Amino acid sequence: MGSYKILLFLVLFPCSDLFLSVNSIEFEVGDDKGWEVPPSKNQQMYNEWASQNRFQVDDTVRFKYKKDSVMVVSESDYDKCHSTQPMFFSNNGDTTFTLNRSGLFYFISGVVGHCEKGQKMIIKVLQETANSPPPSVQNGTTNSSPTESGAAAMRTGVSASTLVLFIMSVIGFIFV
User: Fold this and answer.
1) Disulfide engineering: 105 pairs with which of 39, 54, 89, 123, CB 3.0-4.6 Å?
2) DSSP secondary-structure letter at 55?
3) Which of 102, 114, 89 has its CA nearest to residue 35?
4) Band of pLDDT at residue 140, cut at 50, 70 and 90
């Protein structure tokens, strides 16, 4: 009987990742428009897009573009569209950037004149919590891009009661 309990524990223990994992989401910047100079009538296009999404630590943002670049800069460089001292730079046409902390990230294009025409964006990454809420729902749809809408429903946190029940069930199998 003791070997049965050990075998059951060895089968259930790897499943604990199902309860404890938090999924990250990859967002495609600008959805189907990609990373480009916005039309003159909508210079806030990227900030509007960012404000419609909920970003969390370890999510990624993917920039797809042609003959351009992506930079992460300071707030003051963002405001002035200065690209001389980026904290991050990429110009490979398909850039993925991991949001590795909570707070604000400032993105600009490094091509001369593009930032001034509105090719810039601020992303706010939410504080890490043990049980983050799902994306907000308005009018029956989630505020999410097509690339992350299905994944957003899978983003989960672990409630204390779920964790306690899991631990108690494992202990119960070992000692009963």
Assistant:
1) 123
2) B
3) 114
4) very low
